[in-house]
Amino acid sequence: MLTDNEIRRYDSPKNWPKKRLLLSDRGGLALDVLPSGVRSWIYRYRSQDGTRSKLTIARYPDLSLKAAREERDKLAGQVARGLSPAYEQKKQRREQKERAEGRGSDPTLAQFAERWYRELVLPPKGRNHRRDPKPVRGALDNQILPALGDKLLKEITKADLRKFLFEKRNAGHETMALFLRQILKSVLDYAVIEELREFNPATLIPKDSIGRAEKRERDLSDSEVRALLETVDASSMARPNKIAVHLLLLTMVRKGELLRAQWSHVDFDKTEWYVPREHSKTGKPHIVPLSPQTVALFRELHVLACGSQFVLASRNSIRKPMCLDTINKALDQLTFNMPHFTVHDLRRTAATRCAEGGFPSDVIELALNHVRPGIRGVYNRSELLEQRREMLKWWANRIDALTHAPKLVVMEVAS
Predict the structure, then answer these.
(1) CATH number, domain at 392?
(2) Paired residues of 313 in beta bridges
(3) pLDDT at 290
(4) Which domain does 291 fall in, by range?
(5) Which conformational region is residue 374 in: left (phi greater than 0), alpha (psi within -120 to 50 degrees), or beta?
(6) Are 343 and 237 found together in one domain?
(7) What are the Cα distances from residue 321, in Å, to 14, 120, 304, 310, 326?
(8) Do residues 200 and 230 share a domain?
C-alpha cells in the first residue's frame, strides 16, 4: 500500500525517476510517475468478460491519496455492475464536448447558437461567403447571448423572445430588433431540424409586430450637425467618446473601423490612417487621409490613450479596444432636439454634403470604402488619395464654419 510520505518523496526533482514508474496501492489503484515529475492516478481492472483495461483518474496532488481510493471504490462498483469505467469516462467526455458544441441533448441557447454560427454562418474553409458574418457575430455577442444565452434551448418561449425583441423596438431600434428576430428564428429553425425542439416560437412573433425595416435615408442638416456637436461638447460624455463622434463625422469611416484602430496604423508625418483588411468591412485595406482638424483630434487621443496600442481604448482595460456599443449608448443618454438619427447616418451626412459640394462620386465612394462593381472597382488602394484629402479637408472646414467656433471640440495638445 502507498503512503503519503512515499508519494511526497517525488515532490523533489532529484527523486524523479529516470524511467516511467508505476507505484501500486491496492484494488487496482496505482500512481503513474513520469520522469518529468508528473504524477497521475491510474485504475486498472478486469471486465466481466476478462478484458484488462485501465483509465487515468486524475493528477496528484489535485487528487489526494484518500480521495483517489474513494474514487477507485466507486469505479470498482461500476465494474461489479458489469460496466466499463473506461468506456463510461469516454462517454462522459464525449457528452461534455457535444454539449459545449451545442450537439448534446440539452444545450443552452448559447451553446447551440455557437454551433449554428459555426455550421451555417461561417464560410467553409477556402471559400468566400456572399455575406459578411461579422454583423451576426456582433449581434450574438453583444445582444442575444447576454440576454438569453444561459437559457436552455428547449425552454426558450415566445414570452422570452417577445420581451427581448419588444424592449429593443420600444427603445427606438426597430431595425436592430428585426435583425435580432431574423437571427433567433434561424437558430431555432435549425434546432427544430436537429430535433432539439418541436416548434420555433419566433414564428409566433410576426415581423410586422416589431416594425418595418426601411432603407435608411437620414442625413443631418447643417443646423442638426451644429446641434449634434454643441450638445456632445456640452455634455458629461467622456472626452474620448466626444472625439470619436467628431472623428466619425470628419473621416466618413465606419464605427467598427474607428474603434479597432491602433496607433501603429496612424502616420502623423504622412497625415494618414491605414485601415488593414482585417478591420475593414470590405475585407480590403483602406487609407484615410487626415485633415488638420482630424490630426489634432488624433494627437489628443494619443495623450488620452495612456500608452494603449488602441486609438480608443476600453475604459476597463487599455489592452482592449472600446466596445462597439459605447458610442451608441453614450449618445442615447443625450437629448437632441431633432428627429432620431444613428451613428451610421453621420457617414451619409458627410457623403451627401460632399456630393452637394461638387466632389465626384468616385472620390466619395472611395472615401466611404465602398466596394464598387465592375472595372470601376479595380483601383489601387491609394488611388485618388489627394482628391480625397482635398475633399475631407473641405468637409472639416465646413464643419468648423457650421459650429461658428473652430475649437469647439478640438482641444489644444502639444505636438
Answers:
(1) 1.10.443.10
(2) 321
(3) 96
(4) 222-403
(5) left
(6) yes
(7) 47, 28, 13, 6, 11
(8) no
